[in-house]
């Protein structure tokens, strides 16, 4: 089969690009532990019994290491339980988020924390807060008439 | 039409090297440039998204 010289060049470029992209994604997934927020959902729950199902019967922070926390958070119309979370600077927080009613967003602008809160599912994401600041936590999935007021803050103390 | 096709086929058979050269000279330069521009766009977008992700994580 005859392939034009220029055609060969662009085929090689395309194959190399695909290879580089796949390798980068592979390194991110297997060496750096990046994964979609809904990847495992080890905890399944009945969306109508969120507040009776551990760990969401007692939402909030749980210290699991020297400066490492699990944060169990329930999104509801129109807020987050608990609101106004306070953590020390440098804390690594594993967010476990679900919803008590409809689909909500869980976004901390300026960070990679951006996921959905889905009824019946637990989405997770880990983030280390290296800068002392007040981080905004807001809903970015339209959830109803009070959607624009659905926000709280995460205070990182220096 | 058939006569022309026969003529063309015999020409191709008899003069393979000429035909090869003709294929080599097909004007694919514009297509090549378009492919490179599209490829550059994809690479730049991809690197931009990766950079944003690394900056914010």
Query: What global shape of chain B is seen?
Result: rod-shaped
Helical region count of chain A?
Answer: 1
Please give the CATH architecture of the largest domain in chain A.
Sandwich
Distance between the termini of chain A: 67 Å
Number of domains of chain A: 2
The percentage helix of chain B is over 70%
What are the segments of chain A in which pLDDT stays under 50 over at least 5 consecutive residues? none
The CA-CA distance between the termini of chain B, in Å, is 67 Å
Give the mean pLDDT of chain A.
90
Name the average pLDDT of chain B. 74
Low-confidence stretches of chain B: none
CA gyration radius of chain B, whole angstroms = 23 Å
User: What is the tally of beta strands of chain A?
Assistant: 10
CATH class of the largest domain in chain A: Mainly Beta
- What's the alpha carbon Rg of chain A, rounded to whole Å? 20 Å
| Number of helical segments with 4 or more residues of chain B | 3
* Biggest sheet features of chain B: none
Task: Give an overview in words.
The complex is a heterodimer of chains A (158) and B (57). In chain A, the strands form three sheets. In chain A, strands 1, 2, 3, 5 and 8 form a five-stranded mixed β-sheet that branches. In chain A, strands 4-10-9 form a three-stranded mixed β-sheet, with no helix packed on it. A two-stranded antiparallel sheet of chain A has the order 6-7. Chain A has one helix spanning 5-31, and strands at residues 60-65, 68-76, 79-81, 85-88, 91-99, 104-107, 114-117, 123-129, 134-138, 151-157. Chain A contains one helix and ten strands. Chain A is an alpha+beta fold and 158 residues long. In chain A, a hairpin with a 2-residue loop joins strand 2 (68-76) and strand 3 (79-81). Chain B is 88% helix and 0% strand. The relative contact order of chain B is 0.06. Chain B has one domain (2-56). Chains A and B meet through helix 1 of A and helix 2 and helix 3 of B.
């Amino acid at each position: 089969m005859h392939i034009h010289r220029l055609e060969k060049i662009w085929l090689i470029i395309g194959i190399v690009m695909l290879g580089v992209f796949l390798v980068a994604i592979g390194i991110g997934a297997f060496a750096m532990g990046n994964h979609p927020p809904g990847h495992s959902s080890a905890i399944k729950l009945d969306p109508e019994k969120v507040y009776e199902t551990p760990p969401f019967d007692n939402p909030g922070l749980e210290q699991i290491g020297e400066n490492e926390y699990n944060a169990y958070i329930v999104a509801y119309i129109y807020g987050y339980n608990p609101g106004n979370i306070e953590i020390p600077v440098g804390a690594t927080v594993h967010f476990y988020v679900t919803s008590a009613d409809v689909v909500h967003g869980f976004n901390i602008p300026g960070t990679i924390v951006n996921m959905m809160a889905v009824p019946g599912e637990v989405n997770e994401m880990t983030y280390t807060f290296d800068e002392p600041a007040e981080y905004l936590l807001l809903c970015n999935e339209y959830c109803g008439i009070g959607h624009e007021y659905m926000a709280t803050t995460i205070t990182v103390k220096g | 039409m058939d006569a022309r096709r026969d003529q063309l086929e015999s020409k191709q058979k008899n003069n393979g090297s000429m035909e090869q050269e003709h294929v080599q000279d097909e004007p694919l330069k514009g297509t090549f440039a378009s492919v490179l521009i599209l490829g550059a766009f994809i690479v730049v977008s991809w690197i931009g998204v990766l950079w944003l992700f690394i900056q914010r994580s």
